[in-house]
């Protein structure tokens, strides 16, 4: 397995961050993070720009996050690449500089899915379904940051965030005429990537496709497609953060997430756009689960995940529908409130996650960082990406930012899995 094939961890200092579900997980081993908690900084503008402007932005960054403006891709409408309400797709670009001028990060935004008319209607009337309702500028942080202190390996790359407005991890294809829903995630993916290629990405020396949560799942589904856009001379790799959603049994003995995914795949016409290596042997719902896709990915890919993924605990393992008595209500919002049997259930989930990557980890090009934090999305928040003082998680004294950089640039093999919670700092776990 190499130097990081078996690992221990140092304790993280607690940091309280309000999660997307408005829950603060107290006493966590690290900062609790969600796809909506992107407190960060970036540089505004188009490709290129003067040294004076970049210097002034670097100075401003010390005072607060720098904001990156939106670009609405109106030309994509002609190809039917539209958000759920029919508006054009959009992205945010912070151009590279210096040695990073010819390197690109493409980040696929996350933000859940919709599986029925009511949920999709709600989504269509929000920034998750309409570019008209998206923020006109957003902060970039963590792996998207323009700060060399926070993001030493990628700070000066061209960094792009593609906004998420389809509801099926950029993989749907269809139109619900009765309700006016456009399910065009696959077309959005294709149109925006081709546009980025046309404005300079086609000549990139190195590129990285990344995303967290639903965006992390999208990275797994599209990683090989992304590589196919580039010549063999371009270094192409992928990073999926918090995208390892498991087909797990919930607290009632059912499979809540499988039922949910089945509805998404059917409603949004996802099946034709799933990786053929998976659909050749499994049903389409199974192929929306990363555990059934990752072993077939040919492009180098790094999986970053919390073993006790907060979203999966809340919405897959112990959703309200599977816990009508509310026995898990306190535990799933505060791990210190979990009893022994509940911790055992969570430990079993962690073991299932480790088992799901056993085959994947055998690939020499793959990378892994699975830590024992109760968190969700760790690459785009400075506190979890690289800020050791704030409690950024580390395995064998190596944090997330360094681990990803070591893997991408081939400085070291990174296949690190934390010991089970609670970790005393001396245990080792071999996958």
What would you say this structure looks like, in words?
The chain is of the alpha/beta class and 431 residues long. It has one domain (6-430): Rossmann fold (3-Layer(aba) Sandwich). 26% of the residues lie in helices and 16% in strands. The protein has 11 helices and 16 strands. It has helices at 51-63, 117-124, 185-198, 214-228, 256-267, 276-279, 310-317, 329-333, 340-356, 382-385, 400-409; strands at 6-7, 67-72, 90-94, 103-108, 137-139, 158-162, 174-176, 181-183, 206-212, 235-241, 301-306, 367-371, 394-395, 398-399, 415-417, 429-430. Strands 5-2-3-6-4-9-10-11-12-15 form a 10-stranded mixed beta sheet. Strand 13 and strand 14 (398-399) form a beta hairpin. The longest helix has 17 residues, at 340-356. The radius of gyration is 20 Å and the shape is globular. It starts with 5 loop residues before the first strand and ends with a strand.
Determine the structural class based on helices, strands and strand pairing.
alpha/beta
Tally of alpha and pi helices: 11
> How far apart are the first and last residues' alpha carbons, in Å?
9 Å
CATH level-two architecture: 3-Layer(aba) Sandwich
CATH domain fold name: Rossmann fold
Shape: globular
How many domains, in number, for the residues? 1
Q: What is the CATH C-level name?
A: Alpha Beta
Low-confidence segments, ≥5 residues, pLDDT <50? Answer: 1-53, 424-431
**Helix-strand topology string:** EHEEEHEEEEHEHEHHEHHHEHEEHEE
EC number: 3.1.1.-
Keywords: Cell wall, Cell wall biogenesis/degradation, Hydrolase, Secreted, Signal
Region (Disordered): 40-61
Family: Belongs to the pectinacetylesterase family.
């Amino acid at each position: 397995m190499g130097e990081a094939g078996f690992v221990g961890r140092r304790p993280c200092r607690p940091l309280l961050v309000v999660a997307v579900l408005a829950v603060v997980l107290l006493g966590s081993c690290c900062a609790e993070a969600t796809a909506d908690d992107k407190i960060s900084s970036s540089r505004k503008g188009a490709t290129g720009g003067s040294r004076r402007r970049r210097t002034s932005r670097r100075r401003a960054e010390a005072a607060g996050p720098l904001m990156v403006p939106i670009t609405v891709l109106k030309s994509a409408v002609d190809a039917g690449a539209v958000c759920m309400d029919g508006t054009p797709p959009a992205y945010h670009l912070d151009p590279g500089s210096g040695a990073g001028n010819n390197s690109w990060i493409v980040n696929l935004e996350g933000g859940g899915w919709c599986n029925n008319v009511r949920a999709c209607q709600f989504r269509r009337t929000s920034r998750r379904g309409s570019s008209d309702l998206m923020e006109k500028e957003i902060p970039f942080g963590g792996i998207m940051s323009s700060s060399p202190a926070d993001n030493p390996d990628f700070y000066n790359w061209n960094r792009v965030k593609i906004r998420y407005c389809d509801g099926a991890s950029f993989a749907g294809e269809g139109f619900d005429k009765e309700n006016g829903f456009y399910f065009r995630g696959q077309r959005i993916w294709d149109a925006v990537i081709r546009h980025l290629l046309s404005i300079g990405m086609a000549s990139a020396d190195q590129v990285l496709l990344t995303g967290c949560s639903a965006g992390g799942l999208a990275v797994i589904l599209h990683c090989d497609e992304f590589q196919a856009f580039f010549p063999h001379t371009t270094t192409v790799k992928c990073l999926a953060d918090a995208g390892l959603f498991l087909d797990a049994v919930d607290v009632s003995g059912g499979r809540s997430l499988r039922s949910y995914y089945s509805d998404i795949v059917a409603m949004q016409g996802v099946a034709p756009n799933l990786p053929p290596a998976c659909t050749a042997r499994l049903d389409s719902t199974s192929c929306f689960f990363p555990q059934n896709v990752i072993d077939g990915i040919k492009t180098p890919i790094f999986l970053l995940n919390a073993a006790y993924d907060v979203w999966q605990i809340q919405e897959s393992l112990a959703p309200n529908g599977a816990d009508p008595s509310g026995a898990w209500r306190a535990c799933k919002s505060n791990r210190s409130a979990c009893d022994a049997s509940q911790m055992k259930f969570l430990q079993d989930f962690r073991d299932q996650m480790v088992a799901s990557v056993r085959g994947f980890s055998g690939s020499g090009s793959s990378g892994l960082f699975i830590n024992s934090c109760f968190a969700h999305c760790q690459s785009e928040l400075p506190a979890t990406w690289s800020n050791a003082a704030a409690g950024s998680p580390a395995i064998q004294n190596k944090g997330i930012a360094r681990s990803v950089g070591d893997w991408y640039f081939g400085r070291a093999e990174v296949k690190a899995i934390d010991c089970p919670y609670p970790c005393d700092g001396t245990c080792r776990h071999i996958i």
